[in-house]
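Q: My labmate handed me this sequence with no annotations at all. I'd like to see what the chain might look like in three dimensions before we decide whether it's worth expressing. Could you predict it?
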Amino acid sequence: MKVLQINSSDVLGSRFNGFDIRGLLADEGITSHHLVWNKLSKDPASSHLFPIPLSRQATAVLNRVESALSIHARLQLQSFTLPLHRRFREANLVHYHIVHDGYFSLSALPWLSRLKPTIWTVHDPWVMTGHCIYPVGCERWRIGCGACPRLDLPFLMHRDRTAQDFQWKRNILRRMDVDLVVASDSMRLMTEQSPIAQGKSVHVVPFGINLQKFKPGDAAAARKRLGVSPHRVVISVRAFPMSPFKGFDYFIDALRQLDAIGVPLAIITTHSKGHLNEFIGKHQVIELGWVNDENVMLDTYHAADMFVMPSPTEAFGMMAIEAMACGKPVIVFDGTSLPEVTDAPRVGVAVPNRNVDALADAIRMLALNKDERTRRGLAGRALAEQLYDERVFARRLAELYQSVALARKDSSEQRP
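A: Here is what I predict for the chain of 416 residues:
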């Protein structure tokens, strides 16, 4: 069976878009090819989505027009040329991933979905809202949006067109012949409650990782490579202060309450630098910035005594399962997918959303209790082996591909 994957990139997000598991899909009888807007790999398993002269320049202009009009993912009419691509014509099924990054028009999807059996992985709630990627506590997505309280959230709008965009998306989904895929039960619940996705089949397929790569390692060696001082309790966290969805500011506020914790701390951050200067001298601060080397990322997990993921909103939480697979306890916020993904309170530690005092208490509890860290770390590894093996991910996707394609075939044969 030939499956075509449509995504913004092949390498970026490869754990989410199936690029990492194409070999495992092949073992399940699925030949998978990726058409992507940004081809970063030299692997022949991916190709440029729209190899049309000047398409990038035209798309950049259209994106500026969309921004001025406060609309998004509508004007890229090159999307209607997808059936001209040989890979589309050869495919038995098309699997769409992130197609709202400004290179693809959702308006093409109803027509495209009638040409081929279609699956769409909803990686975040943008499909269910009038404009934002995450509604951040707002419930207007349940009633059609409009009167938006946060037009500044990505994707930013200069004027409120959220009600119109909500209805536009609703019409698109209503006209699509599509099965939707989400990675968590919390996303399934939101999708099923959404007026936009009403009546669509929704399948929960958690993402998977390579458990031979993400596994417990030599903590002492990792700490030495990263320069961690001896006898420190090490906290690893993603520094993403520019995002309203990742909650790094809550971690900083919690850290301010830990001056007199009683044990020396080392804080390891990735993704960004320069945000923990006030703690230099109080704790050891190791800011790695943006990390492209997977071995360095593994060191941050292996060196850690705990991983803190204070996202106030999250559709899955890949770094949480990576940390658990490496045998580390994870602290998360309630009201997101993360308590479900980390099986809190049995494995993960979940605290009330945006509650800085509770977050500080959870960090303090684990910092002062080595036995609790060990117990939760072992349970996290066992959970990763049970639920988040990439081989299970590939097998479940392959089964879904086969069933969706068969259902379309049966439906076609029953038409007069």
